[in-house]
Specification:
With 448 residues, the chain is of the alpha+beta class. Helices cover 34% and strands 17% of the residues. Bound molecules: manganese (II) ion.
Length: 448
């Protein structure tokens, strides 16, 4: 049965900071997800909506967080699945209404079956509704219908909301900056993912299947009461040149690199690590040449993660090293300026085609607008933000639109760490996962 992952104070603090941004006489409606059918009568593993997790830590399906303000006073409630012996025999125990009201950070709890009635009643005294739409159609309909005159005459008061808005922007801004408790949680998530990668590195040997490496990593998550935060990518050889490769069904041959992009979730908080290593424990000369460029680019990107720098600083720093490297390898035959292009859109993008950083938190590609005011270089980095740095180089041997010296063809390398921005400089939350050539090779030398 679910239990609450943070202190009650942590949630109350989040709720009151959120509420302080809203006008008086408002109502907030945040539904979570319902179960999702996988096949016939079986479901996908359930995962709650991140806004619900953020505001009150409620983990189970078919619940709604509601808060409303009447003349300056906020009341919070949680609508949950009520106890139901018959359903619980099949689906598992429920927290239930009473337990929810005692142990979760809300003033009141109700059965989800009462929600229409209670919301309709309270809407009469509300001017503005803030609802996350698309999760609960019935509630969307109730709210939008309450805007119409027909509904107002039906409830005989003539009163009711004048506006319906999406509160996600306000919550996203809050979620961008992590609290102390959130940082601790994400450090645990990063430590666990680092360990899983180390386990995979030390279990590697020529002839191993991509799926076997996947199972070592995910098995480590499961054995630590965790789970994946996104589908694990395990690409041997040139499968590493497919950015979101997910088949994980090929054997990895002697002499090949393997790229593993995998992270876990702890109480909803994601880690996201990529490492690339030689399956036989020894980098070749050509692999070293490419690896050193990506590693230098990654370190340059991390060093740019400084309070006061714009969001794109890490991308620009990494891109510069990648472009220089491509010239050094003889793959690009032009000046650094030409390789980078005017808006970092030059020919280096043929080999490094994705972004360098994304925000990380309750979602692996976490919320938050990176240029809220249209800033060309993105918003300014602030203390408490957590983002990834993950440059790569991909020399796909199956592409016909580029030409690669044959000695590099089929090499794909990405290195990714999770970075906390602090006043004292970047903190690498995934620093326990080795990434230098010397560290990886000596770790692999310890294999039995
Ligand atoms: Mn990532």
């Amino acid at each position: 049965m679910a239990s609450i992952p943070f202190s009650i104070e942590e949630y109350i603090n989040r709720q009151s900071r959120f509420h302080s941004k809203l006008p008086e006489n408002s109502m907030v409606i945040i539904p979570t997800n319902s179960n999702c059918i996988r096949s016939n009568d079986t479901n996908y593993p359930f995962r709650g909506n991140s806004y619900m997790l953020y505001l009150c830590g409620w983990y189970d399906p078919d619940a709604v967080f509601v808060s409303h303000n009447i003349d300056g006073h906020w009341t919070t409630s949680l609508f949950v699945q009520p106890s139901d012996t018959k359903a619980e025999i099949w689906e598992g125990r429920r927290v239930g209404v009473e337990n929810a009201s005692i142990n979760w950070p809300v003033d009141e709890a109700y059965s989800i079956t009462e929600i229409d009635h209670i919301i309709l009643k309270n809407l009469e005294n509300i001017n503005n509704v803030f609802i996350i739409q698309g999760l609960n159609k019935q509630l969307d309909d109730i709210v939008f219908e309450s805007l119409t005159n027909k509904s107002r005459s039906r409830n005989k008061t003539g009163k009711g909301p004048r506006s319906v808005s999406d509160p996600s922007y306000l919550l996203d801004e809050m979620r961008l900056i992590k609290s102390k408790e959130e940082i601790n949680k994400m450090q645990i998530s990063c430590n666990l993912a680092s360990k899983a990668h180390i386990k995979a590195i030390t279990s590697s040997k020529p002839g191993i299947g991509e799926w076997e490496i996947q199972s070592i990593i995910e098995g480590h998550f499961i054995s630590n009461l965790s789970e994946i935060s996104y589908s694990s990518i395990v690409g041997g050889g040139s499968n590493a040149t497919v950015l979101h490769y997910g088949d994980n069904n090929c054997v990895i041959n002697d002499g090949d690199l393997v790229l593993v992009d995998a992270g876990c979730e702890i109480d909803g908080y994601a880690s996201d690590i990529t490492r690339t290593w030689p399956i036989n424990g020894k980098f070749t000369k050509e692999q070293i040449e490419v690896y050193e460029i990506v590693l230098e680019a990654e370190i340059a990107g991390i060093n740019a993660c400084v309070v006061g720098n714009p969001w794109l600083s890490s991308h620009h720093a990494s891109s510069k090293v990648i472009a220089e490297g491509l010239i050094k390898l003889g793959i690009l035959n032009c000046s650094l300026e030409e390789a980078l292009g005017q808006d970092y859109d030059g020919p280096y993008r043929n080999f490094f085609m994705h972004g360098t950083s994304h925000s990380l938190g309750l979602d692996v590609h976490d919320v938050g607008v990176t240029s809220p005011n249209g800033e060309k270089e993105g918003r300014i980095l602030e203390d408490g933000m957590i983002l990834t740095v993950e440059p790569g180089l991909y020399f796909a041997d199956w592409r016909t639109d580029i030409s690669i010296p044959s000695k590099y063809a089929g090499i794909g390398i990405r290195i990714e760490d999770d970075i906390l921005i602090t006043k004292d400089g970047p903190v690498i939350l995934t620093s326990s996962c080795p990434k230098s050539i010397i560290e990886i090779e000596s770790l692999m030398n310890t294999r039995g």
